[in-house]
Specification:
By secondary structure, the chain is mostly helical. It has helices spanning 5-13, 24-38, 87-101, 122-130, 152-160, 178-182, 189-196; strands spanning 108-113, 137-142, 170-172. The protein is globular and about 55 Å long.
């Protein structure tokens, strides 16, 4: 933990035991509690900070569960958003990403929208610094619906590995959009992806 002692003690003491399932609803409630405990959120909402080096650890255990840790690090950004982020946030997020990418046991999931030029994606250069041989970096493209008509072939070449080859390859996902989230109870992510692709 990288927080003052009084905050660190409060955070370490927080836990949520006895859950039998971890679904959308109770996960959202847990995150809301965690945001308060960690003091993170939009600065304009009275939060102490937008990002934290502290880690929320969710352990799912059982005889058939895999031993795996997933760390979701905020995306690299360069522009301050008034009332939401600061110059310090930019530096902290970058340092956090570098720290996790520097761990030789980490798999680097380089995620960015499918409609952007990969030459402009700083995360790929950062990954190359920490994974020179490309043995632990996987490319993940999101928002395929934003790809301009006529540019689909470029994205297909990435995913097939004929352009900007990566040892672990590329994947492409279609996450729910805002309209999908409004009807989350009836939403079927897998059916949506199948229909789209």
């Amino acid at each position: 933990m990288n927080t003052p002692n009084e905050d660190a003690a409060r955070m370490k003491a927080w836990k949520k035991d006895g859950l039998t399932t971890l679904g959308r609803n109770n996960f959202s409630q847990i995150l809301a509690e965690v945001y308060k405990v960690m003091g993170v959120g939009a600065l304009s909402s009275g939060a102490k900070r937008s990002f934290s080096d502290d880690v929320l650890r969710i352990e799912v255990g059982g005889p058939y569960e895999q031993h795996l840790s997933v760390v979701d690090v905020p995306g690299i950004f360069r522009k301050i958003t008034e009332g939401v982020t600061t110059q310090l946030d930019i530096a902290n997020v970058r340092a956090m990403a570098e720290r996790y990418m520097g761990n030789p046991r980490s798999i680097i999931l380089a995620v960015f929208p499918a409609n952007v030029d990969i030459a402009t994606q700083e995360i790929l250069q950062m990954a190359k610094v920490h994974d020179k041989e490309g043995k632990r970096t996987l490319g993940a493209l999101t928002k395929p619906y934003l790809v301009d008509r006529g540019a689909e072939d470029y994205v297909a070449k990435l995913v097939r590995g004929t352009s900007h080859t990566m040892n672990l390859g590329w994947c492409i996902v279609k996450n729910p959009g805002q309209q999908d989230l409004k009807r989350i109870e009836e939403f079927d992510r897998h059916a949506l992806e199948e229909a789209f692709f």
